[in-house]
Amino acid sequence: MHRFRIEVTKFTLVGAANFALTLMVFTMMLKVFSVNYLLSLVAAWVVGMIFSYVLNFSWVFKPEQTIQFKARFLRFFLASAISIALNLLVLNYIVKQTDFDPFYVQIGLIPLVVVFNFSTAKYWSLRPSV
After folding, report:
1. Using alpha carbons only, what angle is made at residue 90 by residues 38 and 83, rounded to the nearest 5 degrees?
2. Averaged pLDDT for residues 20-44
3. What span, in angstroms and rounded, lies between the C-alpha atoms of 16 and 14?
4. How far is CA 64 from CA 54, 57, 75, 126, in A?
5. Distance CA 102, CA 28 (A)
6. Residues 95, 97, 99, 105, CA torsion sign
7. Phi and psi of 34, rounded to 5°?
């Protein structure tokens, strides 16, 4: 249980750092370079996903000694894509059904997204090879 708590704590710290990084990339592309907001979001998501993969691989879960960008990265990318797709679908559904402020709906969804992302990383995409 101790190792699990350490992993959860590290995963949360990586998530917080990832949030700051993606917000910075998104803001810089949108406000400084005047890139379309959708392209800015996609670019920020890609940068954040690679950042998260590297830190989760090398610091949180450590499935191997050296980082690999092969099948494990593809699984991590797929899990991240599913996560953001489900997040977008649920966010859009709740906002349209309730007319709640999307900001607060997203805040409420964050714990579910974190649990999904942690579970897919720990038990599927970044689990140690057997």
Report:
1. 65
2. 90
3. 5
4. 12, 8, 15, 9
5. 22
6. negative
7. 55, 40
CB of 48 within 8 A of CB of 25? Answer: yes
The upper half-sphere exposure of residue 13, i.e. CA atoms within 13 Å in the direction of its Cβ, equals: 10
Does 25 have pLDDT greater than 70? yes
- One-letter amino acid for residue 125 of the chain: S
With beta carbons less than 8 A apart as the criterion, state whether 42 and 107 touch: no
From 62, 76, 56, select the one nearest 12 (Cα to Cα): 56
Q: Taking the CA atoms of the chain, what radius of gyration do you get in angstroms?
A: 16
Side-chain-side CA neighbours of 9 within 13 Å: the count stands at: 6
Q: Which amino acid is at 110?
A: I
Instruction: Tell whether the model's pLDDT for residue 38 goes beyond 90.
Output: no
Residue of higher predicted confidence among 80 and 102: 80
130 or 2, higher pLDDT: 2
% of the chain beyond a pLDDT of 90: 66
